[in-house]
Amino acid sequence: MRTIKIFDTTLRDGEQAPSCSMHLNEKIEIALALERLRVDVIEAGFAIASQGDFESIQKICEVVKNSTICSLARAVPKDIDAAYESLRKAKSARIHTFLATSPIHMQYKLKMTPEKVLETIDAMVRYAKKYLPDVEYSAEDAMRSDKEFLARALETAIAAGATTVNVPDTVGYATPMEMVEMLNYLQNNVRGIENVTLSVHCHDDLGLAVANSLAALSAGAGQIECTINGLGERAGNAALEEIVMGIHTRKNYYNCKTNIDSTQIYPSSRLVYNLLGLPAPINKAIVGANAFSHEAGIHQHGVLANRETYEIMTPQSIGLLENKMVFGKHSGRHAIEQRLTELGYALSKEDIDKLFERFKKLTDKKKIINDHDLEALANRSVVGASGAFTLDRFTVNCGNYVTSSAIIRLKHEDKLLEEVAIGDGPIDAAYNAIDKLMPAPEHILEDYTIFSVTEGNDALGEVIVKIRCGDKSVIGRGLSTDIIEASIIAYVNGLNRLL
Ligand code: KIV
Ligand code: ZN
Question: Which pTM was predicted?
Answer without folding.
Answer: 0.86
